[in-house]
Amino acid sequence: MKFFHSLLFFVFLISFIGTKLEAQVVCVGAECSNIPMEFKILGNFAEPVFDRVYTNGFLRSMGDNAVLQNLNSNKSGGSNVNRYRLGLGYTVSRGQEKAGDFYYENSELRTLPKAGVAASPSFSYTVNLGEWLNGSSAKQWNLTTHFFPYEFGAANIPFVKIRNTDVNGRVFNYGVVLRYFPVDSGFSVGMGVFQTNQDIYLSSYDRRPTQFRIDGDKRRWIGQNDLFYQSRITSVSLDLKYNYTIGFLSIIPGIGVVYNHGYTAIQVTRFAAISTMENPDDFVSNPSAIGIRLATRYNHRSGFGYGSLGFKIGQGDYSLVTELMAGKEIQSINLSLQKQF
To answer: Which InterPro entries match (predicted)?
Structure first.
């Protein structure tokens, strides 16, 4: 009967401006009666993880990071394509906003990255609308689409080293840019619509019991940790570029703005056996376990501005292109090979 009396289930919602926070705690076993409810929920689990780690600023940066990478994957360029063009490239993006001190410092999740990184290959296709529509003015318009579904693991995530953690994920970004080239001006104006989709799964287990405290008493726990990150963001962009060509080299500076509508969500779960209050090394006398599920979601309803600088080296129908994009505390770079036909 003591076991059933000690079965505790707590569910609560905490709302922050711009963020929906959910926390669920399940405790099973005799040791649960030695964990004060207010400490277990508010003092120890929800606030440290989501107030100090996954702040609004960090979640916003993660989403903006992915959006900038998606924009840079389009490779619409700054010079008018006469007929058709194919491109294949790779784009990476990195943010400067960092997560706070991770609460699970005494578990394997302490190895998780604290700065946002986005990366994926992409395929692009450009057509001059004069090939599809009649009229001389149609030749002043290019339409560029890009996409690339990309599944990854720990071995093929660039610039991120995650130890003792299983990593799986999928990126499926795509977009369309319509670009107008005024006759012989060097300038072009681009209008685009983008969809940014990311799913990242991280899972690890504690290789040995680790310490945590309850009201000053040392305890130990050992268990399984999981983290799921997801972003679904629709973006609308407007940019201005200028193309300056010297022989086979083109230099293409530009500026742009983008508005985002969607969300970035993170869910953390931990299931662990906990030691007795009398002996932090004793997991057998009173078998007890605790399950924690924490989830937060940031709604993107804002935009940002960015600058860009591209370089194109052309030889015949082929060209090698790189473009750097930078917003406030986020940067992205792309490298692609293109062929016109």
So the answer is: Lsa36-like (IPR058232)
